[in-house]
Amino acid sequence: AATRLRCSSCTKLREVARNERVVLCSNCGGVMGDPFVGIEASPGTFTVMHYGGSAWRWSSSVSFNYSRKDHAWQLVRVEESNFHTSNPDKEKVDVATPPKDFGKIDFRDFDPGKWKGVGPR
Question: What is the 3 state secondary structure string of 48-116?
Answer without folding.
Answer: EEEEEECCEEEEEEEEEEEECCCCEEEEEEEEEEEEECCCHHHCEEEEECCCCCCCCCEHHHCCCCCCC
